[in-house]
Amino acid sequence: MRQAGRYLPEYKATRSRAGSFMGLATNVQYATEVTLQPLDRFALDAAILFSDILTVPDAMGLGLSFAEGEGPKLARPLRDEKSVGALQVPDLEKLRYVFDAVTSIRRALNGRVPLIGFSGSPWTLACYMVEGGGSSDDWRGVKSMLYSRPDLMHRILAVNAEAVAGYLNAQIDAGAQAVMVFDSWGGALADNAFQEFSLRYTAQVLAKLKRTDAAGTTIPRIVFTKGGGLWLDEMEKLDCDVLGVDWTVNLARARALVGGSKALQGNLDPAVLFAPPEQVAAEARRVLEDFGTPHSGTGTGPTHVFNLGHGISQHTPPEHVHALVEAVHSHSAHMRAAGRKA
Ligand code: 1CP
């Protein structure tokens, strides 16, 4: 999930030098620096590109800005038939700064850990593109369009699916070693609407993604739907390698459902990080135990990728993240050793 961000003083320092969030994300040097900052503090197993899902609507001409202390804003949201009709897959050259950042980060990582690229899902991007801003309590604008003009919604989603696939493929070309699709607002949809307006278009993206990089190395795909636990049986059919789950999901049950075919990523409640380090460690052990020993003996196959169940809060004390990472490493090593003996 998010690794960098305002909970780290070094991030805040770089962000203030950059002047704005977009100043940070569009500058290759700064984007590289903030991607590596969490790795210099914590023994993390992967790096996630520093960027944002809203770079794609920005490249489509919707005009992105991040006001200090507020969420994202789009200056030209899609409100009517005319603006939806004019929407087009962006020229990927407008996102060159992202691909350049990927290449620069890969070079700076120098094999230390793999780099994960990402995008929003077509539906999640549509939420911002229609509302014009951050998480809404009722998603009135986007849901009104979905129910009253499903034709317009389908047009946005079709353009988004094409754009997201091109965007992720370009990240793979630039050096991303895994790609993650964030369907952060899939869980805001009703049953049926989720399948028709979110899952279907995520599947379209996956169908268009490259399976390997230029050297022939497989690029794993991760799909995270916040609030998607009820649809895991349907998500199991997606052509991806990993399903990310939020903290409402029980990992033992999820493993029984999808464990044979896909790895699971998650799912510590980020709010656990507000508790003292001992509680953080205890909750981390609980998540690991819920999934269970990855493989007994020397088995291979889909397993568990420890992660938060959603993004890290800006109010998180960095020492608590340190305690979390240490607990995950020591307890999972212990579980693997016990599994080998069994
Ligand atoms: O390590 C990292 O920080 C990785 C980079 C990263 C990622 C993967 C950022 C930087 N954003 C994201 C993804 C992202 N952005 C998602 C999908 C994951 C999720 O659900 O959290 C979403 C929905 C956004 C949109 C967004 N960008 C929001 C949420 C607004 C809302 O709807 O409430 C916010 C606050 C941002 C700004 C942002 N993006 C990233 C950071 C570190 C920040 C905070 C601003 C800052 O620190 O300056």
Give structural notes.
Helix content is 49%, strand content 11%. With 342 residues, it is an alpha/beta fold. The chain has a domain at 20-34 and 44-244: TIM Barrel (Alpha-Beta Barrel). The protein is globular. The site of coproporphyrinogen I has 23 residues, from loops.
CATH top level label of the domain at 20-34 and 44-244: Alpha Beta
What proportion of the residues form beta strands (DSSP E)?
5-15%
Mean pLDDT across all residues, rounded? 96
Order of helices and strands: HHHEHEEHHEHHHEHEHEHEHEH
Distance between the termini: 33 Å
Structure summary, number of beta strands: 9
CATH architecture of the domain at 20-34 and 44-244: Alpha-Beta Barrel
What would you report as the Rg, rounded to the nearest angstrom?
20 Å
| Largest pleated sheet | 7 strands, parallel
Q: What is the CATH topology descriptor of the domain at 20-34 and 44-244? A: TIM Barrel
The set of bound ligands, ions and cofactors reads: coproporphyrinogen I
Helix content: 40-55%
Oligomer: single chain
Number of helices: 14
Strand order of the largest sheet: 1-4-5-6-7-8-9
Q: How is this structure best summarized?
A:
The protein has 342 residues and is of the alpha/beta class. It has helices at 9-18, 21-25, 28-41, 55-62, 81-86, 96-109, 122-131, 140-148, 150-174, 193-208, 232-235, 251-258, 277-291, 318-341, and strands spanning 47-48, 64-66, 72-74, 115-120, 178-183, 221-225, 242-244, 263-268, 304-308. The protein has 14 helices and nine strands.
